[in-house]
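Data card: per-record layout.
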Amino acid sequence: MTINIPAHVGMAVEEVDTPCLLVDLDALERNIDRMASFVKENNLRLRVHAKTHKSPDIANYQIAKGAVGVCCQKVSEAEAMVRGGVRDVFVSNEVVNPRMIDRLAALSKQARVLVCVDDIDNIDDLDKAAQRYNTTLEVLVEADVGAGRCGVQPGEPVLPLARKVSKAKGLKFSGLQAYQGKAQHVHDFNERKAKIDDAANSVRETVEMLKKEGLDCDIIGGAGTGTYRFEGTSGVYNELQCGSYVFMDADYQRIKMEDGRHIDEFENSLFLYTTVMSKTKVEKAICDAGLKAQSVDSGPAVVYQRQDIEYIGASDEHGVISDPQNHLKLGEKLRLVPGHCDPTVNIHDWYVGYRGDRVEAIWPVAARGMCL
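The structure for this 372-residue chain is written out next.
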């Protein structure tokens, strides 16, 4: 049986099979160090979002650099992290399927496990499962601070949920989940900041209400790569949940900073490596990275550090690259920056980590396809 591994340690990057995911290890490490420094300087905790990389190898490196644990969006994703050695996982999502709740409770026998709630009856189901497994699940009440997805409204609606969690035998009330997901990719600085200011104000009021009830929030969590500086300096949030900063992608790099420049504090470390497979047209080339190798929900990939060519379209197995000056050659390899890193990662089995011109690491995308 052939194992679909695109490279081996020690080979030249130019020899790596395509299409595949390349990770520039130097850039990855610098990104991790920069976020770790910000968190330390602002006396915060960092709970990195594993839905970006789906890799215990990367998660454990982030933890070694100071992160307290990981966020996951699915129980199966959390299980993959724990199997890979992570011992503090937060399913920053609601879990209502009885079988999934049982799996969550079982997982808490191996690691610290936290989960979100936004429904009174769901609290009963989580409590019963925790008691069946003779364990404790930590619970955060989720407040909808602008994303318009899960969560109750901040303020008074949070209180009955927090009260019930605090009284449950198998549960521990650990705080408030307040992630403003819609703000992450707002390109304009002032508009993005205004959304987080609104969120932070509502979170502050909610935390004060909880304190009056004798309910302290160990965790006040949220924030992403696009807004972490706002939450991190708000004086409200104490735990950041950034994910994409480790890799960056084309859409995140369209976000503007206060001075109007595009965000540049984190580097591209993730690339979709591709090969020119056809060059029968003077003005364009066809590469082997099409729709089955990437997500284009946030726009097409961008050719890294090339101004003379442009990735302009894709079908299932082919990518179209505009080459007006006829620079590309058959067999030439290119690094593409995905439009959206998270779903692009979920298509692949392996990361090929390189330093300089040599492959240094091969990591499985261990939580690929973990959607249960």
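Known properties of this structure: The CA atoms of residues 224 and 242 lie 4 Å apart. The chain is about 25% helix and 25% strand.

See the next section for split statistics.
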